[in-house]
Amino acid sequence: GGNAGTAASMGEASSPALASDHPAFAALARVLTPTSALPGRSWYPAAEQSLAALYTLHPDPEGAAADVVRSFAAAAFPGASSDDDTTASPFGTVNAAYLARFLFVLGEVGLRHLVHAEGL
Length: 120
Prior knowledge:
By secondary structure, the chain is an all-alpha fold. Helix content is 55%, strand content 0%. The chain is built from 4 helices and no strands. The longest helix has 23 residues, at 96-118. It is globular and about 45 Å long.
């Protein structure tokens, strides 16, 4: 591949390029939020690239991605929480746009995490 001779291709762990409080992560967070200002279709490629950057640059991509997934789950299922012991179904209040974004993020994080785990 295109990474011949790099630390990653030689089996060496490479360190993240940025600290977790770097301003770049604030910019990624503006995209990776359920209420992102990006309209409709343009959000999906931006979110894909933002997750790729997160997994490449963040010192704890697993934790950061988990936070992203939680925020999208909370937006897609606003009545549901892990502490809620009620038997009422939250599915009557699902917003289709938030659900679509949640499922996209969930799938993308799953794929990114598999690739990330292979590199460990």
